[in-house]
Specification:
mainly alpha, 462 residues, 2% strand, Growth Hormone, Chain: A, single chain, two-stranded antiparallel ribbon
Length: 462
């Protein structure tokens, strides 16, 4: 393929990956924002504020439980029928589920069955986003060169702050224009209904991209793996576990800083409005517009694992700074802390896509990367808001198992300690993961000699 044509296809692939991922994350984050603000009263009106919030976070967690299912389902298709077709399917799957949340009845109409319907639609959201990430990363990375994997892989990650900013900005604008009373009554549906328009835009863009050269080569050489999930678990179970664990210090704090922040604000700083927090989180997302690609690019220069482990170390300290200053309650301080909150996360998230994807060979990459990335959602991102709420309140009630300790209640540093534990585990997992940043991702790994895999070119024979 001529260099100019390859460059055009690369640009189209990066744009399509970023736009599509932004739309999917808009849908996914929208549930968390709306859930933290109004779902407790809409779907659990007979519960008090704390119990209703915990119930909503359980449903929020359901979406994370479904993400490995999406990774398994769409990962299999991505390695068998291609990246492009699978990405179109995930976009439609997620978009329709989000739109249906916007038209579904609440407790006032269906009673407790409304919560059941919400659980089902949240499951569909989780399945959709579970298959989206891996394909978007591969679509961008597999069109690029070996030396720019970190930079290219960071652009689908860039869709996260876009989705975050878009979802929070739309919610903040709706609350501001409609008022908090109208938003809690009916206007909360508007951001969900807008999803169908965004899906149309994303679908139009994704239909115009070309399949990646890596998958084209796999087809041409008749090397399609018929059971990619089974094969990648057999061959790369260690990489799957480690890539899941290294996400703990990135994903758990992210959902504390973007979802639990609303609950913490309600309890710790009740004098600040809901729109205050939605705008503050939106600013944090805007900061990530710069920091995610910056750290992705930096990982190509000084090393993927170096940047990632430095981000973990910063996060371990930042957890104590964040909650210590937040609990003080001064509006200006709280806004600044929230606005800067995602920088330690972005130090990890920028290089993370390439760090995970390059751990797997081409014909198993969609399945392996998706499984490693999405398994973390079960123990990292999904339970994080629930755990943080329980730590703040000093009580838990999980499947009848109750924990109640007034000694830790209302201490923000218990949440900081939770982040610290995540950082220790993630740091060890990253250290144990083999560095494959110098591997040529266009060639199956078993076909590369040890020298070539480490980026050393053999001298020409004269």
């Amino acid at each position: 393929m001529p260099p100019e044509e390859r460059r055009r296809n690369l640009i189209k692939a990066v744009i399509a990956s970023t736009v599509g991922t932004s739309i999917e994350w808009y849908d996914y984050f929208l549930f968390g924002t709306a859930g933290a603000l109004v779902f407790a009263k809409l779907f659990f009106p007979k519960s008090d504020q704390l119990a209703g919030t915990l119930n909503v976070y359980v449903i929020f967690f359901v979406g994370f439980l479904a993400r490995p299912v999406g990774a398994w389902l769409f990962g299999s298709y991505g390695d068998r029928i291609g990246r492009k077709a699978t990405l179109i399917a995930t976009l439609l799957f997620m978009g329709l589920a989000t739109f249906l949340i916007g038209v579904m009845p609440t407790y006032a109409t269906l009673g407790i069955w409304a919560a059941v319907v919400l659980v089902v639609l949240r499951l569909f959201q989780g399945i959709g986003v579970g298959g989206e990430w891996g394909g978007s990363v591969l679509m961008a990375m597999e069109w690029g060169s070996k030396k720019r994997k970190g930079w290219l892989g960071s652009w689908p990650q860039f869709g996260v702050p876009i989705g975050l900013v878009l979802s929070n900005a739309v919610v903040a604008l709706t609350v501001t224009l409609a008022g908090e009373s109208a938003f809690a009554s009916w206007a909360w549906r508007i951001p969900f209904l807008l999803s169908i328009v965004l899906v149309g835009v994303g679908l139009y863009i994704r239909l115009g991209i070309v399949e990646t050269p890596v998958f084209q080569a796999i087809l041409r050489e008749n090397r399609v793996e018929q059971a990619p999930v089974r094969e990648v678990i057999r061959r790369n179970w260690r990489e799957i576990i480690l890539t899941a664990l290294l996400r703990l210090p990135e994903q758990a704090p992210f959902y504390l800083f973007t979802v639990f922040v609303f609950t913490f604000g309600i309890f710790a700083t009740p004098h600040l409005s809901k729109s205050f927090f939605t705008w503050a989180v939106s600013v944090a997302g805007l900061v990530s517009f710069i920091t995610i690609p910056l750290f992705g690019h930096l990982s190509d220069s000084i090393g993927r694992k170096t940047v990632y482990m430095l981000g973990i170390a910063v996060m371990a300290v930042w957890g104590f700074v964040y909650f210590g200053l937040f609990a003080g309650g001064a509006a200006v301080v709280v806004f600044i802390v929230i606005a800067l909150s995602l920088i330690p996360h972005d130090m990890q998230y920028g290089p993370q896509a390439s760090l995970i994807a390059e751990s797997f060979t081409g014909r198993l990459r969609y399945s392996g990367a998706s499984l490693g990335y999405q398994l973390a959602s079960i123990f990292a991102g999904g339970p994080a808001p629930y755990i943080a709420t329980g730590l703040w309140a000093g009580k838990f009630d999980i499947i009848g198992l109750k924990f109640d300790s007034p000694f830790v209640a209302k201490s923000p540093y218990t949440i900081s300690a939770y982040i610290l534990v995540c950082c220790v585990i993630g740091f060890l997992a990253t250290a144990l993961l083999k560095d494959r940043s110098q591997y040529d991702h266009h060639v199956e790994y078993e076909e590369q000699t040890p020298m070539e895999a480490e980026g050393v070119t053999r001298p020409a024979v004269v």
